Fold this sequence. Notes:
By secondary structure, the protein is an alpha/beta fold. It has helices at 4-13, 19-48, 55-78, 102-107, 145-148, 159-163, 167-172, 193-203, 229-236, 253-259, 299-307, 328-345, 367-370, 418-423, and strands spanning 87-88, 129-130, 149-151, 173-176, 179-182, 219-223, 240-245, 264-266, 281-287, 308-317, 348-354, 357-362.
Amino acid sequence: MRSPLLNKLSVIFGPRPPVSWLLLCFVSVLALIAVFGSSSSNSFDSVTSTPVPEIFTNYRRLKEQAAVDYFELRTILSGSSRQRELGLCGKERENYVPCYNVTANLISGFKDGEEFDRRCEVPRQGSWCLVRPPKGYKIPLRWPAGRDVIWSGNIKITKDQFLSSGGVTKRIMLLEENQIAFHPEDGLIFDGVKDYSRQIAEMLGLGSDSELFQAGVRTVLDIGCGFGSFGAHLVSLKLMTLCIAAYEATGSQVQLALERGLPAMIGNFISRQLPYPSLSFDMVHCAQCGIVWDKKEGIFLIEIDRLLKPGGYFVLTSPTSKPQGSSTSMKKRNMLTPLEQYTEKICWSLIAQQDDTFIWQKTADAHCYSSNKKNDVPLCKEGYDAPYYQALVPCITGTSRKRWIPIQNRSSSSDLSSAELEVHGKY
């Protein structure tokens, strides 16, 4: 019996198909095999051997091309026909800092400490060059090891200078071959750093300095930070501590702090504001920072008031300012009288005094300034927020900001509350 398919084919082509038709079918089958075979092979190859793009190589080429384009644009803008290569500065400019030139400031007539302020507008002569690092400079050690040990070649202090320094320096730092080791237990004024920090916490009514964070102290400005030991200890307590110190031509407190991995910057406010917005810090600390706070009608205290958040603290430790006299009450009255006159004007309260350390607290009541009967320190104009490095102003600012939130109202956790998130970064 023949199948139905063969019966149909026999009807169409007859009982015996022509040879040409058979050849055509055979060629068609071969063509289909070749097409499907090549497509399946290509798809298999695409799955098994997909080429990996050279991402790093392409990125490096783009980076190199961007650098070439930048130099070409700079050459065109400068009008020079060829690129100018910068050489290395001389050794005398090893500690050069832009906008800080005491000699040029003195020639321009600045004095009484104003020559140490940042002044970019003062003309100065000098060739363009790359400031070289100190000879033998090494990459600082990683935190936390670098907090207590730095390379002696990275800072401007020689072995002879170290040996000829006072006893306090030798107690704080130990010079060993090419390293300087800091002793956290020693060093701030008379007591150790930890004891000093614990003393401040107890003066605030806390059990220990580990409770400072929960009490609302998160950011601290340390003026004249010395060797940075106090800031290093506060950082270990998860407090953001910023060191700020005046410009020094040879060696620097700021350089020491940076080598230890601590936030630090050069800053001086003899005549100009510090480069921070209003209401930036929870605590401002000064331990023998060399500032006469009752000078210039208390304008330095007004600047600290600008930086402090409502309810923030100003900690002053200054044994050199201890008055002379036989009566203890007379000593205290003589010392506090100049400062009390100015702190009362800016609505500060002296909340604690122990030995040579005094703590004032800024008011959390914004109406305190306007309700002052004497009105010795007026409020700044509405919306006043001068740019950084502007002249110091004898007026109170920050009272109309949305960020006027007492630090005591903060949540005790590390996360910001909804109210804090609403005003974070806004004025």
